[in-house]
Amino acid sequence: MELIIGLLIIAVGAFCQSSCYVPINKIKSWSWESYWLVQGVFAWLVLPLLGALLAVPARHSICELFTNQPSFNIWMTILFGVLWGVGGLTFGLSMRYLGVALGQSIALGTCAGLGTIMGPVLLNIFFPETDPLSQLTFSVILGVVVTLVGIAIIGIAGSMKASSLSEEEKRAAVKDFNFPKGLAIALLAGFMSGCFNVGLTFGADINFGELTDPMFRTLPATFLVTLGGFVTNAVYCLYQNGKNKTWGDYGKADVLFNNIVFCLLAGALWYSQFFGLSLGKGFLTSSPTLTTLSFCILMALNVVFSNVWGIILKEWKGCSKQTIAVLIVGIVVLIISSFLPQLV
């Protein structure tokens, strides 16, 4: 029963993350770089910090937590957060050229597979004595493979969509639709975004051990990863503010309250995926396979829900029944990938 609860919590987080772009549509009179930076303050700084505080028991402090940990682990966690930040920037571009459904599907699918595999592999380079490669069991590899199969099927649906619609229909669904360019950017975004889970792997022991509730143990590492990602995004956004002369966005009093509220909502929805991942993993401790695969499961469910939003936003409107059938098969395979490893 606990395993089901854990997976449901992760699923709720995935649904929230897939919905985080909806509030952004309510932001008024701000350039992309301005609202991306402000929502990032909430998504990657404020909320992760509050989450990390949940891992700090009474009579202890978060400063004590970070100063008592090996500096190598701290900086490696932040470093992979910086690299993940590059994935976050290109992630937005993938949706610009492919749409919410297809863009998230390819980027998150690549992220799911590489993020799960890269963590133990890189950790084995630095700490071979802990045998991190033992986490990559047959069941884990099977789960990753099935997830990638599901992503590939959805990619085929996207290719069918690109070839069957006229240029006008493509633009009606996604204004800047460009499948070749979007595919390349989505794959890059997925590769770099996989660094998030690598950062979590390096920061897995950044907590107070038995004094920290199992549901909150990955939240300090999550904060360090998002801190690194915030640095990458902030540098780029501030550069774009200067280049595009959009500093005035932050001083538009008539839309300031509205935009901050929706940036906060978007940030909260985005962060909920990793808050839910931490809580969910607390219920998966009896299954090492699901614990290792939890990041992959989260990304797979993100893809499922992003395609639901894609359907709602009519990004697949005008596609043939065959294309929709292939899309549905891909979604079903992704759902199966979340449970299949536990049954093997």
Distance between the termini: 18 Å
Structural class: mainly alpha
Helix proportion: over 70%
CA radius of gyration is 20 Å
Task: Tell me, briefly, the overall form.
Answer: globular
pLDDT averaged residue by residue: 84
Strand segment tally? 0
Regions with little confidence, pLDDT below 50 for 5+ residues: none
Strand content: under 5%
Order of helices and strands: HHHHHHHHHHHHHH
**Sheet of most strands:** none
Count the DSSP helices: 14
Notes on the protein architecture:
This protein has helices at 2-18, 21-24, 32-53, 62-67, 71-126, 138-164, 167-173, 179-193, 195-202, 219-244, 253-281, 288-312, 321-337, 340-343. α5 crosses α12, α6 runs parallel beside α12 (288-312) and α11 (253-281) runs antiparallel to α12 (288-312). 76% of the residues lie in helices and 0% in strands. It is mainly α. It is built from 14 helices and no strands. It is globular and about 60 Å long. The two termini are 18 Å apart. The model has no long low-confidence stretch (mean pLDDT 84).
Brief characterization of the structure:
With 344 residues, this protein is mainly alpha-helical. The protein contains 14 helices and no strands. It has helices at residues 2-18, 21-24, 32-53, 62-67, 71-126, 138-164, 167-173, 179-193, 195-202, 219-244, 253-281, 288-312, 321-337, 340-343.
